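ok, trying the design again with the full structure, not the truncated one.
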């Protein structure tokens, strides 16, 4: 099916609204609460999203400015999410929410006008505008999960999980690269049960290596928000087993993942 930027923008707007609903009711003290992401507060989660919304917008609308910014980061040792988070810790919750609203609004408005195949630069290989927007959906969902886990809010699964799963499957090769490993040639079939009970699938139907289970569980795994032992995923084959141990849908250095809680969802 052809990619629709309108549909992607609508899904990002919906994902943003769900996160904003949780954030809007938080007292100032809660913005300083530690989240399951080690060393990161709720405020850090939001500044991360707002900052990279601004960067993604520059990459699409002013690639020369993005290239200059990236060159400066590279000269300083590369992109450091922890350093970026520390930079904005003096902002109040209200200031962070205003920034997030503004950055997200400008990003969505600009991307609605782009051809989905337009190539945009990034910190790794260049990607399509559609892939860049899908990455923003994935990032929003993952950071919202941390916020919801921190305050005890319900993060309801939706059809938008397909974006998270899709980018996670597509990032299999990158996961190996981030960990300095060679990816095995064996393909992996991923079959997931969507929130509405339908099936989402990637990879050859006859692949010996397989990952089966709820779409939510795969999304939690591939964004490293849960340890695989806490998820109801069936993993078959050496290639699939190795992938679930190192898989990450996000760019950057290899993630450390989460410790097992000792109880399967």
């Amino acid at each position: 099916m052809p990619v629709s930027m309108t549909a992607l923008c609508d899904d990002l707007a919906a994902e943003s609204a769900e996160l904003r609903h949780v954030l809007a009711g938080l007292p100032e003290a809660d913005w300083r609460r530690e989240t399951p992401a080690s060393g990161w507060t709720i405020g850090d989660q939001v500044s991360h999203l707002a900052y990279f919304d601004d960067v993604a917008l520059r990459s699409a609308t002013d690639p020369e400015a993005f290239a200059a910014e990236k060159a400066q980061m590279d000269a300083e040792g590369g992109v450091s999410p922890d350093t970026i988070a520390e930079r904005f810790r003096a902002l109040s919750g209200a200031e962070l929410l205003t920034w997030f609203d503004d950055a997200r609004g400008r990003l969505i408005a600009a991307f609605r006008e782009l051809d989905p195949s337009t190539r945009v630069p990034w910190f790794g290989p260049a990607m399509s505008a559609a892939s860049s927007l899908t990455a923003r959906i994935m990032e929003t969902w993952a950071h919202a999960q941390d916020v919801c886990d921190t305050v005890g809010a319900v993060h309801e699964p939706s059809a938008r999980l397909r974006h998270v799963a899709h980018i996670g499957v597509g990032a299999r090769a990158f996961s190996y690269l981030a960990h300095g490993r060679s990816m095995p040639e064996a393909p992996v079939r991923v079959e997931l049960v969507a929130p509405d009970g339908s099936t989402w699938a990637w990879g050859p139907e006859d692949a010996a290596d397989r990952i089966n289970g709820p779409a939510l569980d795969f999304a939690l795994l591939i964004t490293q928000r849960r340890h695989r032992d806490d998820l109801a995923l069936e993993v078959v084959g050496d290639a699939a087993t190795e992938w679930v141990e190192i898989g990450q849908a996000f760019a950057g250095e290899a993630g450390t993942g989460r410790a097992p809680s000792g109880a399967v969802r």
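Keeping the full-length input from now on. The CA atoms of residues 45 and 93 lie 11 Å apart.
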